[in-house]
Amino acid sequence: MQSIKVPPIKPAISFDLLDKIDIRVGTIERVEDVKGSDKLVRLVVDFGDHKRNILAGMKQEREHPEEIEGRQALFVVNLEPKKMMGELSEGMLFDIGYADGITSVLAVPENPVPNGTRAG
Description:
The protein is mostly beta strands. The chain has one domain: CATH 2.40.50.140. The chain has 1 helix and 9 strands. It has a 5-stranded antiparallel β-sheet, with no helix packed on it. Strands 5-6 form a two-stranded antiparallel ribbon. It has a two-stranded antiparallel sheet with strand order 8-9. A hairpin with an 8-residue loop joins strand 8 (95-96) and strand 9.
């Protein structure tokens, strides 16, 4: 296991603010290359009642990003869409480790749950 220097905890936030973040489980159906980017891949994610394209900067973190196809993971689904490399990202993948400079791993449910299930 990699080790890190544990950073200080961020300032406290209210439960109201936390309640505004919509975190849901989705299944990553496909991982596609984003042409012209050395970092980004496009994840096609099934949230049960709809699918979204979510861009994630994992090209340099994983030798074979497509290895996560079929896996469930946690996503923030109520961020404003963001255009990157000419493509629209409709959410954010939760991963663990990137901010601390270690090899990232997916934040995943312990057991399979229906797509669209909310965290919290």
